[in-house]
Amino acid sequence: MRIIAGSAKGRRLQSPVGNDVRPTTDIVKEAVFSIVQFELEECSFLDAFAGSGQMGLEALSRGAETVCFVDSSHRSMSVVRKNIELCSFDSDRVVTVVSDTIRFLSGTKEQYDIVFLDPPYMTGLLQKALAASARVVKDGGIIVCEHPAEEQLPEITSGFSLEKNRRYGKIMISVYRKNES
User: Are the C-beta atoms of 80 and 54 separated by less than 8 Å?
Assistant: First the structure.
């Protein structure tokens, strides 16, 4: 696993040991950042279900102003913190939170331009997190979901409309945009 573009390009990242974390492949990561490339500059990015933190770190490397990493695993968050150090990102640009993601989304007062959701597959967490994300996304903001291609997501949910679906082998990237208020 590595950062593929931006200020930390080429930095190798650590990953939590075991089968609890499923890192996003480089091809899918590149696809996600191709989709959001014009919205990254100075944005606030939420890497929910952070795992190793590679998606939030990629966002920082490509110009995001701040990233919040959320994961329920202390072990994963320890790896995220090590990866932040490996990439030499300023601590004032990152927030790390050990919390159940749904609880975090339901309780935080922060707002984000981009929310990235990649929960464990086929557990029902994606649908819950998608609905809970509605209250933390700024007007005009987006939610990017990584999920198995066979998992169907709604066209409209909680004030968001499905803007894009892109398939990469067995993985689907679904992008929702918050309807302007």
Answer: no
The reported pTM is 0.94
Query: What DSSP assignment string belongs to 7-53?
Result: TTTT-B----SSSS--PPPHHHHHHHHHHHGGG-TT-EEEEET-TT-
Q: How open is the CA angle 58-118-152, to the nearest 5 degrees?
A: 135
pLDDT tens digits along 108-144 = 999 999 999 999 888 889 999 999 998 999 988 999 9
Domain 26-178, CATH number (from 3.40.50.1980, 1.10.10.10, 3.40.50.150, 3.40.50.2300)? 3.40.50.150
Residue among 129, 3, 124, 112 at smallest CA distance from 54:
3
